[in-house]
Each structure stands twice: as C-alpha cells, then as structure tokens.
Amino acid sequence: MKNGFWAKNPSLSIKEFRYFLSIRFGLIFSLNMQSTIVFYWIYNITNDKLALGLVGLAEVIPAICCSFFAGHLVDLSEKRKMVLFCIASYIVIGCSLFTLTTPFAFDRLGVESTQYLIYAFVFLGGITRAFMGPSVFSLFGLVMPREHFPNATSWSSMAWQTGAMLGPLAAGVAIAVNSITMGMFAVVLLQVLLLFPILTIKRKPILKKEKEPILQSLTQGIRFVMKTPALLGAQLLDMFSVLFGGAVALLPVYQKEILHVDEVGFGLLRSAPGVGALVTLVLLAFLPLKTYPGRKLFIAVTGFALCIIGFGLSTNFLLSFFLLLFSGMFDAVSVVVRSTILQLVTPDHMRGRVASVNTIFVSSSNELGDFESGVMAHWLGTVRAVVVGGCLTLGVVAVTFFGAPKLRNFNYDDEGKKE
To answer: How many CA atoms lie within 13 A of 163 on its CB side?
Structure first.
C-alpha cells in the first residue's frame, strides 16, 4: 500500500518539495487568516459595504503595477532568496497590522486614521504579492522535475487550498474566542515559523544569465502568453470568472444582515470554498485529470457560476454553506487545469515573467473581484450584486468556449510530447 502511494505520488518523495508544500500551506493559511480578519475588522468599524471593496482595490493596484518589474527581477535573481525576502516583508506588514489592532493604537488614532492605515498596509502587501507569486512559481519549477508536474501541481494546489480553508476558519474562531488582536498575533507567529523551511531549501541556479534591455524583458512574458492560445484562454476564463463570480468580500454582509450568524458562522462560510476545494484536490491527487482537461475546465467554471447564483439567492445558512462548498469544488478543478497548463508550457528561463502575467490575469482578479463586489453591492444591493456576477460569469464561459478552441481541445499528453 505504501509503495502504491509513493508510486502514484512521486513528487512527495522529493524532500525539498515537502518543504515547499509547508511554505505554500503556511503562507496561504496566514494570509487568508489575516485577510478574513481585515475584512471583518473594516466592516465592523465602518459598517460600509464600499469599504470592503476598497480593501481589494488597495491590494490589486500595486499587485498589477509592480508585476512586470517583479517578474523581470525574479528571473534574474536566486529564487529561494526572493521567497525569503517576501516572507520577511509579510512579517513586517503583519506586525504593523497587529499593532493597529491593539486598544492603545486604536484609541489614539480613531476609526478614520485606522481605516486609512489598514489600506496602506494592505497596499504594501500587494507589492509583496507581486514578487511572491513569480518567486514561488519559479521555485516550484526548480525543486520538481518536469515529468512530475501534474502530480506535484495537485499537491501544491492541495496545500494552497488547505490553507485557504483553515485560515478563515481559524480567523473566525480567533475573533469569537479571543479577539482581532490575538488573531493578528497568530498570523505573525505563523509567518515567522515559515523562515525555517525556506532556509532549509538549497540555493538554486539562476537560469537567465543575459540581461537584455529591461523594456524588452518586461514585454516577453506578455508576448509569450499572447502567442500561447491555450494559456491565454485559461487565464482570461479564470480572470473574468473570479472577477464577476467572487462573493467572498460580501460575506460580512451576509453574516450580519442576511444569514444572521455569529463569528464562527462567518468563519465557516469563509472557509467553505476551501473545504470543497480540498476534497476535490485530494481526489485529483489520486485520480488526475488525464483526458480532456480543457473541456472539464469549462464544465467546472459553469458549475462555479451556478453555485454563486444560488448562494446569492439563499437565505439559509446550511444551503449557503454547501453552495459555497460546491463552488470551491468546481474552482479546484479549474485551478489544477490552469496551473498545470501554466507549468507545462512555460520555459524555465521565463517563469518569473510569465508568472507575473499570471498575477495580473488571475491572482489580481481576486482583489478586483472584491472591489467589484463592494461597488456592485453599494449600487445594486448585496443579493443583486452576487446574482448578476454569477450570470456574467456564465456569459464569459460561453464566449470563451466558442472563442478559444485551443483551450477547449487542450491535452496534457500532446503538450508533453513537445518537450
């Protein structure tokens, strides 16, 4: 049985990849815990739906603006050092947010100054995120042989989704049992612990030695994505589905005004997509998507959109929880397919720059989606905003299905033969 497990999961036999998984899990756990606390904190001190959207906007602006330069710098730098630098930056930001939550700081600053400082530190987190995405993506390619990418991607996504599931739940429990202050302190402590696995990974060679003009280097990642139809289609599909279909930013409103649950209920709702994603990723680790991954991607995004529409209309906590759970299951399929496509088609010497484009297309769409949700809820009302977003996602699926045949017919085996 043991031999069968390792035979099906060869990536886990690589020691440095296990350290990589612990970093990936720990980062997303702490950052999701921090993000959940920030959204809850902002809404409770302002009682303003638009303020929730501004949190996402504060992070997405630097993430987009710095992404191209970040990818260029990551390709020219040693990858472990870049990840270490990003973790250290998150620790500094976490300490700053923790300080703001203390009664001493809040009483002296007041609501308005505290709100603006939260946005400022979230902005700095967005800058760090612009470097973290390409750095982690590039490090993955250096600790894992190419032939194990599909299996390793499933485990990497599983680590990410486990953190995404447990982080919000831990935040809800921390808020209910202790306080926002203790929750933020736990975030900092977890990020400090991440210094141990990253320092255990050995330094990696720098594959990109030549230093062409910076503008030429910055545009290479964009040109590569634009000339790779399957990758471009997957990026656009994921970007717009998350942009229009994201309802997570409005969960504090659903908790307080529609579902009427306590802080633990809020944490459960926030973690529900991660629970569903984790279940799916465990299945995919043992039953990988070997056939017709492109078509399965479209089915998954369609299921995600329908779940979001159902959640928007629901007034029952259990129904809302399970709809969010199923949305996470569908989203996990799209994450694995898109991530595997990204890993397979990207040359090693361009990983930083292509990952930066990925940050703009996909990662930043989460924060833009938060902003879009906050603005739409401010204009249309909470329920209408979520339902309209789900319907727009269905429209994106239809347009991409007919407009991106390369993605629709994408096959892992065909791509592997090109290498």
So the answer is: 23
Query: Using an 8 Å Cβ cutoff, are 358 and 70 in contact?
Result: no
* Residues 214 and 76 sit within 8 Å (Cβ to Cβ): no
Distance CA 133, CA 332 (A): 18
In the block, residue with structure tokens 């400082």: 117
Quote the mean pLDDT of the chain.
81
Nearest C-alpha neighbor of 118 from the set 55, 189, 61, 28: 55
How many other C-beta atoms are found inside a 10 Å radius of the C-beta of residue 296? 15
Alpha helices in 76-202 (DSSP H): 79-101, 103-143, 149-177, 180-193, 195-200
The whole-number pLDDT of residue 103 equals 82
Q: Are 172 and 263 in contact (CB under 8 A)?
A: yes
The rounded distance, in Å, linking the Cα atoms of 260 and 212 is: 57
> Among candidates 140, 153, 137, 186, which has minimal Cα distance to 32?
186
pLDDT at 73 over 70: yes
pTM of the predicted structure, to 2 decimals: 0.70
When computed from its CA atoms, the radius of gyration of the chain, rounded to whole angstroms, is 20
- Which 3 state secondary structure label does DSSP give 225? helix
Residue 157's Cβ-count burial label (10 Å; 0-12, 13-18, 19+) is buried
Whether residue 71 contacts residue 219, with contact meaning beta carbons closer than 8 Å, is answered with no
- CB neighbour burial string for 7-18, b if at least 16 within 10 angstroms, e if fewer: eebebbeeebbb
Inter-CA distances, 204 with 148, 193, 201, Å: 19, 22, 9
- What letters, b where the CB count within 10 A reaches 16 and e where it falls short, cover 109-120? eeeeebbebbbe
**Number of helices and strands (H, E) in the chain?**
19, 0
The larger pLDDT score, comparing residue 358 to residue 97, is at 97
Condensed to tens digits (0 to 9), the pLDDT of residues 283-338 reads 876 776 667 777 888 888 899 999 999 998 998 999 999 999 999 888 888 877 87
Q: Do residues 40 and 264 touch, judged by C-beta distance below 8 A?
A: no
Cβ–Cβ < 8 Å for 39, 172: no
Whole-angstrom distance, CA of residue 243 vs CA of residue 293 = 22
